[in-house]
Specification:
CATH class of the largest domain: Alpha Beta
Distance between the termini: 26 Å
Helix content: 40-55%
CATH topology of the largest domain: Rossmann fold
CATH architecture of the largest domain: 3-Layer(aba) Sandwich
Strand order of the largest sheet: 3-1-12-13-8
Strand content: 5-15%
Shape: globular
Order of helices and strands: EEHEEHEHEEHHEHEEEHEHEEHHEHHHHH
Number of helices: 15
Number of strands: 15
Structural class: alpha/beta
Number of domains: 2
């Protein structure tokens, strides 16, 4: 089984990678590592960018619009921050890649053959009322795992309010995907939402922010149903991070142990319920303490082949995007093991507990886990 984590495209014209974007890449990585522990093959592009759109038209400089946009993309992709976060993801995904364009146009052809396109003059529409009448969209949404769960109600509401009229999917934007043998161009949001057609997978996890669920997320579900190949298994709506890069935070990405501490702070800052969460720099200190504690326990406890119910509980929490609770439970277990050592408890029993937890350490703190596994 192959699962795609559709790392949401970042607009390259909004400036360098911000702290919130760094956090959601780390959150995606928690999911990728937990799926890998379950024996699931995962595809997740490390750098996912949105190049098409009206912002490209405002770029200064000489040369063609496409050349200026590609130069801006290259500058954005040159940011080394993502390579410092110990991510398992790799590769680049862009809505402007030729292979992506071919797959989006192939999907469009399939949607047309299935009778779900409306052409009116110079405009092209997705026939949403017909899609809704001929497919059980309520069942489709019911089969998708939503995190947080409340977002399912938002999607159900969209089925009730946003399926009465066709949705325009053509655009007069200068820099976007052009339909072959036609003057029509596709809207950048349609291209971005369906750029994931470029991957042949069994299922798809779609992370996204709250403000794009009604557009990007809804359009992807509608398009995949209209195309007859619906693979969206999970929709994860992540909170907006309140906070900005500082020298203190950036300095945490210079060593393995401090990067693990940054990842710990990302986990502790996450909220599965709120639309916003604050990145608390004081949590970095707690992350360093946990890194050092795990390293010291590794020196004290002989290696054992073991698994524990607690590790399974932590994996379940990660699956449900309860990162703060999961890292808190892991931290409490490590502190309890340390306390039991001081109380002269059986080293063998403690070693079984400790080494049974190490796969979950690998999810949150891959550097210290690499040195102990």
């Amino acid at each position: 089984m192959v699962t795609l984590i559709a790392n949401p495209p970042v607009g390259i014209y909004k400036g360098p990678l911000n702290l919130g974007q760094a956090c959601y890449h780390v959150w995606n990585d928690f999911t990728q590592r937990s799926l890998a522990l379950q024996g699931i093959s995962v595809i997740c592009p490390r750098r996912s960018v949105n190049v098409y759109g009206r912002r490209a038209e405002k770029l200064a400089g000489s040369g063609s619009l496409e050349a200026r946009a590609q130069e801006a993309a290259a500058n954005y992709l040159g940011d080394p921050t993502l390579d410092q976060l110990h991510l398992q993801s790799s590769g680049i995904h862009s809505d402007a890649q030729p292979e992506v364009g071919k797959k989006v146009l192939a999907l469009l052809d399939t949607i047309a053959r299935n009778g779900y396109l409306i052409s009116e003059g110079d405009d092209l529409f997705l026939d949403v009322p017909k899609i809704a009448s001929e497919n059980d969209l309520a069942r489709v949404v019911a089969d998708i795992n939503f995190h947080p769960f409340e977002q399912r109600r938002e999607m159900v509401s969209l089925l009730q309010t946003a399926t009465q009229q066709p949705i325009k999917i053509s655009s007069d934007t200068q820099y976007t995907l052009r339909i072959q043998h036609s003057s029509l161009k596709l809207s950048p949001i349609f291209v971005a939402a369906n750029s994931w057609e470029a991957y042949s997978v069994d299922s798809c996890v779609m992370p996204m922010s709250y403000n794009v669920l009604a557009k990007y997320g809804f359009l992807r579900v509608l398009s995949s149903v209209a195309g007859g190949h619906h693979t969206v298994q999970e929709v994860y709506v992540f909170p907006r991070v309140v906070g900005e890069w500082s020298e203190n935070i950036r300095s945490m990405l210079t060593t393995d142990s401090s990067t693990d501490a940054f990842r710990y702070a990302c986990a502790k800052s996450h909220s599965v319920r709120s639309k916003e969460c604050a990145f608390d720099i004081t949590r970095l200190r707690g992350g360093l303490k946990l890194v050092h504690l795990i390293g010291n326990l590794h020196k004290r406890l002989p290696k054992q082949n073991a698994s524990t119910d607690v590790a399974l509980d932590i994996l379940s929490l990660v699956k449900n995007r309860q990162y703060a609770t999961a890292i808190g439970q892991l931290e409490a277990e490590m502190r309890d093991i340390s306390k039991k050592i001081q109380e002269k408890a059986s080293n063998h029993d403690l070693a079984v507990r400790f080494h049974g937890l190490l796969p979950t350490v690998h999810i949150f703190m891959p550097s210290v886990a690499r040195h102990t596994l």
